[in-house]
Structures are given as structure tokens and as C-alpha cells.
Design a protein that fits this description.
The complex is a heterodimer of chains A (about 450) and B (about 280). With about 450 residues, chain A is an alpha+beta fold. Chain A is built from ten helices and 28 strands. In chain A, helix 4 runs parallel beside helix 5. The model of chain A has no long low-confidence stretch (mean pLDDT about 90). Chain B is an alpha+beta fold. Chain B is built from five helices and ten strands. Chain B has a five-stranded antiparallel beta sheet. In chain B, strands 3-10-9-5-6 form a five-stranded mixed beta sheet, with no helix packed on it. Chain B starts with a helix and ends with a helix. The chains are: A alpha+beta (about 450), B alpha+beta (about 280). At the A-B interface, strand 24 and helix 9 of A face strand 5, strand 6, strand 7, strand 9 and helix 3 of B.
Chain lengths: ~450, ~280
């Protein structure tokens, strides 16, 4: 709990983040200037280098010298300096975020990096091809300049922005797939059913490794330490050329003709997500107590107590922590398995739940495990014992037990009376009951 | 000039229109011949009403068709993408490639066991589509032609609980409290309360009948103290039942018990002394 807050405080303080941008050459400053300027405009500090620069490093004396890494160098075979795919994995483990854009000329360095993170790019020289959804004006004839539609995007506004307002997006590059074991993989942009990845020069597609909606154009994941990684097969997606292009889809069902491309909006949204400007939440305060009180009990709860649980959650929006408005946060009351699971009522960032503790005693946890696509993983545990009733807390006057009470007390009263009679009764041997009666008879 | 001719040529080839002909689909037994009686011919761009269903991994999925150049009805072989696309309701899909035969016909023919490699561990209901595309094809084809129910061999994927990632809301859990045991009705318990009290009434009644006296009572201050102590202990037990807890009760019982013990000792000693002197 504490470390989470500490971590989040650190994140907050370093919002003016240092970003290392790697291009194939320094020319990236020109070809992708609009994109890079938009990042600078949001207050990030960019360092633009060639990917094979001999002085590259992510760590200095074991400390991160960059918070984020953007690789727009598809063809790089070997990273320069101390950079390598394992070094970048270490960077991710330390909380760094990575955005990687590849292309059909993909080099070993990028492929290896993808594999380390549970994604796999297709072989060099291949490209994603879609004969149904290419751009008629920009395409060179092999149908590799694709037009991405809204329905290919992941249903997560935090990652891709407002999909309903997004214009068609241009894509030209290589396809990738998520590894079978990659359970954290997010299909940020999928291929269409008609798309496939193959050598565009081939006469006939024989056995495509990647085809259909399994094709990923943009894939991402949020690691268990909340570091974010995005892979895309197209560095052109971020280029000035595509930002300013007009889109003419070959698909007759796309109504927008000659429309401004949505690349700038999409690249912005994805980059904001990767650079942790979006979808970051944290716990501000947690409290739980009996109904009518304000503090947790000093030691433990009793079974079937009525308890109030309150958690305050904040979300990072435009650089400020504001109350979190999600309505689907759930609280679990867990002893190995959850006994109670209930939705927390959100009142402007203060989420509460009222519930009756189960009639089972033991060591329980109040657990909030909030994991939603796009948000950082929120996990909070409060441990508390629940004890059984004291012997005085059981029901004392049970109607159906009155025969038992009555018989015990009648025994006790009997004892008192009997002790008096037994000790002090003086039996007159001559004038006992029997003789007295016979005497009475004689008198008659 | 030659560049212009090239580009004209390119435009010419890029505007080829194609048609699908003799599209036959069927589920065949292992060694069954692909004759027309076992296959169903689906007219181009219509959807078959038949559900093609295979329940055994040894059965074959058979699909064959011809591609024609619309302009001169010649066999067309310039398509790069000749795919059979199988989509599930969930959005997951699989792609099979139809291969051209020597006769110019495109064919997919494989047992489900072999096909399952392309199906990414999917099985069940599929929507089958034919996807034809190529650089030279003007209007690519994406035709949903039939539904399939394929019992493909799958390997169940079991994810350990610790590795499961759940992004959605989980079902609510209400704790089911233990229900209290059923109790007899108030009438019965009240009746038996009276029943258990009758022996005491009988005792008192019988004593009065036979006549009791206190002739043996020694004239001593200890006698009322002893019996008050005894009655006090019983009374304490009654209060214990009403409100006290065990520790408070023991505290009071210690005082009462001591007094009663001393008083009882004195009373019994006097009684013993009296009976001893009488017998002598």
C-alpha cells in the first residue's frame, strides 16, 4: 500500500519526463517533426539520437536517465552504446515505458526486443497487405498502404482516444502477432479479416504466417509493474507525410473521401497512454469501520458486524490528480477465497461499500483489485481479523428453552426449601401422621 | 514514352474484373470421392442455407472453385490472395489458402485433423467467406458463402489462476448466512414450562398436607444467615442468567459462598451437638 503511494508520488513529481527518441538517422527530426513537437509541447524533454549512436545509455550509476523510450528506427540491426534488447527489458522492469515503431525493413534489434516482450514481428521484407482497404492515392500498387477503420481499434478510449471522432488512419508496414503465452497483450489495432502479412512482391500467397484479425498493426501491453510498451509495425504512422495526408480508401463502404487522416489524433492518444499521461490511477486513502463510527476497531471485527469500507481513488488528468469517476470498482472480502464481492458506490472519487461481515471467523482482507484496459493496475489490501461471538454475546432468553430454565430454577428453589425442611423438621415419633389419624378415629 | 506505355499497361492490368464459378463445398468422409452428389454447388455471391457440419476429425473439408477473367471468360490465375476465411462469433478467425490445381481449379481439401493447424485451436461454429484479392484485381471479392460447424481437435488451454488476467467486472458475491435452526412454537414451550414447574408445586403441597414443623431449629443467628446465603446463591444464579457474566458472578459467589459456608458450618455443628446430647 505504502510503496504504491510512494511510487505514484514519484511518478507525479516527474511528469516533465525525459524521453529518449531513437531514429534510424538524425533525419527523423525532419520526417517526424510534427509528432515529436507535439510531445515536446506537452512538457516532455526529448533527446533525439540515431539508434546506433555509440553513446546511448538508459541507466547511469544504476539510475534511469530517461523515463520513456521511443524507437522509430525500424531497420536498426544492433543498438549503439550500452543499449540492447535485454537492457531495454531492464529499463521496463525499472518502470520505463517504451514505444517501438518498425517497418518492412525491420532489423534484428527490434525483432528481438518484441520477442522479449511477448510479440513477434513477421520476417523482414514482408508487409501487411489488404486488397480491400488500401489507400487509392498513396498506394504504390502493392496495396500495403492500409486505411484503418474505427472497428479495428481496441475498445479503450484511454489508449486510442475517442474512436467515434477518429478519422481513417493510414498504416504502412509490417505485421505482428501476440505470443500465445502473452496474457497481458492488448490488441490495440487489429487487422481486418481480409488483411494478411506477406511479401508484397510474391506472385501468390502460399502459407501466410499472419493473416486475418490475428494480424496486429499495433499491439501493446502494460506490464505487472504498470510499465507500458507499445509495438507497431509502421514508423510511417507517426510521420509528417501521413499526418498531413488525405485518405481515400479503396473500400466503397468507407464514406469519407479525401478526408484528413486521423494519424495525428491516434498517434497522440497512443503516445499519451505510453508516456503515462493517461489512465494513471492511485489510492489516496483507505478506511473501514463499523457503521456509525469513523475509525477501524483497535483489534478486530466480530462476525456479522455491519461494516463501512471507504477508498479514495485519484486519476491523473492533464497533469493533475482529480477524483476518479469509475463506477465499476469492486471490493472483495477475502479469506483465501472471496466471501463477499460488491461494487463500490462512487461519490466524486470517494468509493464506499456497506456490507454485513460473513458469519465465519478468521483473518480476512479488504481487497480492491482494479484492473481495466488502459488504466494502471490498482491493488489495495487491508488485513483485519474477524472473531466469533463472545460467550456473553449469544442469545440469552430463548422462548423454546424456557422449560430448561424453569426446571433448573425449580431445582434450586427445591434445594433451598428442602434444606430447611430436612434440617429442622422435628418428627414426633408417637404423634406421627399415621398414629395421629388413628387417635382421631378412636376419639370418634 | 515507354514509361507511359508501361503505366498504361499497369492500369490495364490493375482493372481486371474476376468472377467465381463452379463453387462447390462439402464435408466428405475420409476416402469419399469429390463427386457432385456429395458436394453442394453454391451460386456466386449467394449464401448457402445448408449448415456444413463435420463431427469427426477424420472428415474432410472440401472446397473447390474456378476463377474467371470477366472480360474474356478465361481462367484467371493472377490472384495473390485466395483465402478461405473462417470467423467465429467471438471475432476470432482462421485463414486457409486455396491452392491452384493443374486444371486451373482452386482447391482446399484436407481432413479436419490437418486443417486444425491453421485454425489456431478454434472449433465450433464458423462463418465461411471467400476472399480474393490481388494487385491486378479491380474489385476484390469478400463473399460470405455458408455456415460451418466443425468439430476440430483442440487442445484446451488451462491458465493457472495466478496468471489469469481479468479486465472486466466480476460477478457479485453475496455471502449466504447460516440459517438459524427451527424452533418449536411458543405454545408448546410455554406448556412444558408449566409442566416442569409442577413437581415443585407438588412438593410444597405434599409438605403442607403431611404437616411440617421446624421443631429442630436451634435458636441461633447463624440459621437465618445460612439460609439467606443459600437463597442468595440461587438468586445470584438467577441474576447471572439475566445479565451478569461469569467473572462477575464468581466474584459475588466468592463472598456469598464464604458467608454461607461459615454459617452452614456453625448450624450443622449445633445440630450435630444437639442430636449427640439427645442420644446420650
Amino acid at each position: 500500500m505504502k510503496w504504491l503511494i510512494v511510487l505514484l508520488v514519484i511518478l507525479q513529481n516527474t511528469l516533465a519526463d525525459r524521453v529518449l527518441v531513437l531514429g534510424e538517422t538524425a533525419a527523423i527530426k525532419d520526417t517526424h517533426s510534427v509528432y515529436l513537437n507535439s510531445i515536446t509541447a506537452r512538457g516532455h524533454e526529448l533527446t533525439i539520437r540515431a539508434a546506433d549512436d555509440a553513446n546511448l545509455a538508459l541507466f547511469k550509476h544504476g539510475e534511469l536517465i530517461f523515463e520513456h523510450l521511443i524507437v522509430l528506427a525500424p531497420g536498426v540491426q544492433v543498438f549503439g552504446g550500452s543499449l540492447s534488447s535485454s537492457e531495454i527489458s531492464k529499463f521496463v522492469d525499472a518502470g520505463g515505458n517504451v514505444l517501438v515503431a518498425a517497418g518492412s525493413n525491420i532489423g534484428d534489434a527490434i525483432r528481438e526486443l518484441a520477442v522479449e516482450n511477448g510479440f513477434e514481428f513477421d520476417a523482414p521484407g514482408t508487409a501487411v497487405i489488404d486488397h480491400h482497404n488500401y489507400d487509392t492515392s498513396l498506394d504504390s500498387g502493392d496495396h500495403t498502404t492500409l486505411v484503418i477503420n474505427k472497428n479495428q481499434l481496441i475498445n479503450a478510449q484511454l489508449i486510442v482516444g475517442d474512436a467515434s471522432k477518429l478519422k481513417p488512419v493510414l498504416f504502412r508496414g509490417i505485421g505482428l502477432v501476440a505470443g500465445r503465452q502473452n496474457r497481458l497483450a492488448l490488441s490495440i489495432i487489429k487487422g481486418t479479416t481480409t488483411s494478411y502479412s506477406f511479401d508484397p512482391k510474391a506472385q501468390r500467397v502460399t502459407n501466410p504466417v499472419i493473416a486475418g484479425t490475428r494480424t496486429l498493426l499495433v499491439g501493446g501491453l502494460q506490464a505487472r509493474n504498470n510499465a507500458r510498451i507499445v509495438f507497431t509495425g509502421s514508423a510511417d504512422l507517426f510521420s509528417n507525410a501521413f499526418f498531413g495526408a488525405k485518405v481515400n480508401s479503396a473500400n466503397p463502404s468507407v464514406q469519407d473521401k479525401n478526408a484528413q487522416s486521423g494519424n495525428a489524433a491516434l498517434a497522440d492518444a497512443i503516445t499519451k497512454w505510453v508516456l503515462k499521461e493517461n489512465g494513471v490511477i492511485r489510492v489516496k486513502k483507505v478506511n473501514h469501520h463499523l457503521v456509525g463510527e469513523t475509525q477501524p476497531p483497535p483489534q478486530e471485527y466480530t462476525i456479522t458486524d455491519d461494516v463501512v469500507y471507504t477508498i479514495e481513488i485519484e486519476e491523473l488528468k492533464n497533469g493533475k490528480w482529480v477524483p476518479f469517476q469509475g463506477k465499476d470498482v469492486q471490493l472483495e472480502f477475502v479469506r483465501i477465497d472471496p466471501f463477499v464481492r460488491t461494487v463500490l458506490q462512487n461519490k466524486n472519487g470517494v468509493l464506499t461499500a456497506n456490507f454485513k461481515l460473513p458469519d465465519v471467523y478468521g483473518v480476512f482482507k479488504f481487497l480492491v483489485d482494479y484492473r481495466r484496459v488502459g488504466y494502471t493496475h490498482l491493488y489495495d489490501v487491508q488485513q483485519m481479523s474477524v472473531r466469533p461471538l463472545w460467550h456473553t454475546q449469544y442469545e440469552r432468553f430463548i422462548r423454546s428453552a424456557y422449560p430448561y430454565y424453569a426446571s433448573s430454577f425449580s431445582m434450586m428453589i427445591g434445594l433451598v426449601l428442602f434444606s430447611i425442611v430436612y434440617l429442622y423438621h422435628k418428627e414426633d415419633r408417637t404423634t406421627g401422621v399415621a398414629t395421629k389419624k388413628s387417635e382421631d378415629k378412636k376419639k370418634q | 514514352m515507354s514509361l507511359l506505355i508501361l503505366s498504361i499497361l499497369f492500369i490495364a492490368t490493375a482493372s481486371q474484373e474476376i468472377a467465381v464459378q463452379n463453387f462447390r463445398v462439402g464435408i466428405l468422409a475420409k476416402d469419399q470421392e469429390a463427386t457432385n452428389e456429395h458436394l453442394k454447388t453454391i451460386p456466386a455471391f449467394s449464401k448457402s442455407s445448408e449448415l456444413f457440419s463435420a463431427s469427426d476429425a477424420g472428415q474432410r473439408l472440401y472446397i473447390s472453385f474456378n476463377l474467371l477473367n470477366k472480360a474474356d471468360n478465361s481462367k484467371f490465375s493472377g490472384a495473390q490472395q485466395v483465402f478461405l476465411h473462417f470467423a467465429q462469433e467471438s471475432g476470432e478467425d482462421a485463414v486457409l489458402v486455396a491452392n491452384p490445381q493443374a486444371s486451373g481449379e482452386y482447391l482446399y481439401d484436407a481432413t479436419l485433423r490437418v486443417a486444425s493447424k491453421q485454425f489456431n485451436n478454434l472449433a465450433g461454429k464458423f462463418k465461411g467467406s471467400l476472399i480474393i484479392g490481388g494487385n491486378t484485381i479491380k474489385t476484390p471479392i469478400n463473399w460470405y458463402f455458408a455456415d460451418f460447424q466443425l468439430a476440430l481437435p483442440t487442445i484446451p488451454i488451462i491458465t493457472p489462476k495466478s496468471q489469469q488476467i481479468n479486465y472486466s467486472q466480476l460477478p457479485e458475491i453475496q455471502h449466504e448466512f447460516r440459517q438459524p435452526e427451527k424452533r418449536p412454537s411458543a405454545v408448546i414451550s410455554d406448556f412444558f414450562t408449566l409442566v416442569v414447574l409442577t413437581p415443585l408445586l407438588f412438593l410444597v403441597g405434599a409438605w403442607l398436607k403431611i404437616g411440617i414443623n421446624f421443631g429442630n431449629a436451634p435458636a441461633s443467628i447463624w440459621v437465618p444467615i445460612f439460609h439467606a446465603g443459600l437463597a442468595g446463591i440461587v438468586g445470584l444464579f438467577f441474576v447471572f442468567w439475566l445479565q451478569l457474566d461469569m467473572f462477575e458472578t464468581l466474584k459475588y459467589l466468592a463472598i456469598l459462598g464464604f458467608v454461607t459456608f461459615v454459617a452452614g458450618n456453625r448450624v450443622l455443628r449445633q445440630l450435630a451437638a444437639a442430636s449427640k446430647s439427645k442420644s446420650e
